[in-house]
Amino acid sequence: MNNKKTIWITVGVIVVVAVIAIVAFSSGSNKQPAVKQTVKIGLALPLTGGAAFLGESSRNAAQMALSDAGQTKYNYDLVIEDDAFNPAKTATVVTKFVNIDKVSAIITFGSGTSNAAAPINENAKIPRFGLASDPTSAIGDYNFIHWTPPFKEGQLSASEMVKKGYKNVAIVDTNHSGTLAVTNSVKEALKNTSVKIASYDLTNVGDKDFRTIITKIKALKPDIVLVEMFSPEIEIFAKQMKELGVKIPMTSVETFEWSNDPSLFEGMWFISDAKITPSFAEKYQAKFNDGPKPGATYVYDLVTLFINNQEKADHALSPTEMRDSIIKTGYENSPIFGNIQIDKDGFFITNASVKMIKNGKAVLIPE
Amino acid sequence: MEYIIHISILISIYAILGLSLNLVVGFTGLLSVTQAAFYGIGAYVTAILLTSTGMNFFLALIIGMAITGVCSLAIGFVLSKFKDDYYALGSFGFNVIIYSIFLNWQSLTRGPLGIPGIPRPSLFGFTFSENVWFLALSIVLLILVYFICRFITGSSFGRVLKSIREDEGAISAFGYRTLWYKLAIFVISAMMASIAGSLFASYITFIDPSSFVLSESIFILAIIILGGLANNKGAVIGAACLILLPEILRFVGFPDDIAAQMRQVVYGVILVALMLYRPQGLIGEYRL
Question: What CATH number was assigned to the domain covering residues A37-148+278-349?
Answer without folding.
Answer: 3.40.50.2300
